[in-house]
Design brief:
mainly alpha, Hypothetical protein af1432, 71% helix, 8 helices, single chain, 182 residues
Length: 182
């Protein structure tokens, strides 16, 4: 069952996208896919804090709106702290969620806690199991980044290798055709 805090966070996410005037990044489809992966991992690793993970699912990409030059994970961490404080979440939980948001890209800071790793993994795995790569113009670079993050849970990464290989082949074929007709 979903906590009131998670419900408020989902509402905040959807309202943020609506107030922006559109879903430029396709997050309305992306976040439920991330949530599915997070639920899968929570069943497999019940020691993780479920509320931290679920709040992080719905806030990890919030920094995309508004569109800024700053990395969305950095912006998202700031937005997360402000929002969670406004709904009176305790400081320790705010810090945990903010760190999940900040570290989900595995770019300049790496996930350390199980919850941080779950968000980074769920984000990347969701790209492989949803229509994320159908925008073939950015797919080649993105799939490599996502595959790079999957060793956070090596046993599950093994299950995704066939999908990764299939996407790579599809992307390569698309790139060949695109070059011919560009």
């Amino acid at each position: 069952m979903e906590s009131d805090t998670v419900k408020k966070t989902k509402e905040f996410f959807y309202k943020t996208v609506e107030n922006f005037g559109g879903d430029t990044y396709g997050l309305v489809v992306h976040l439920p896919a991330v949530e599915k992966w997070a639920n899968y991992l929570l069943k497999k690793y019940p020691e993780a804090d479920k509320e931290v993970v679920m709040l992080s699912v719905w806030l990890h990409d919030i920094g995309h709106y508004p569109i800024l030059k700053e990395d969305h994970a950095v912006t998202g961490e700031k937005v997360t702290r402000k929002f969670l404080k406004s709904i009176k979440i305790d400081k320790e939980k705010i810090e945990k969620v903010a760190q999940c948001v900040r570290r989900h890209r595995c770019k300049d800071v790496q996930p350390e806690t199980i919850e941080e790793k779950m968000i980074a993994f769920s984000d990347s795995a969701s790209h492989m199991t949803s229509p994320m790569y159908l925008d073939m113009t950015t797919a080649s670079e993105k799939i490599e980044r996502d595959f790079r993050d999957l060793p956070l849970f090596p046993d599950i990464k093994e299950q995704l290798i066939p999908l990764y290989e299939a996407w790579k082949k599809l992307i390569a074929e698309y790139e060949k055709i695109n070059k011919q007709y560009s």
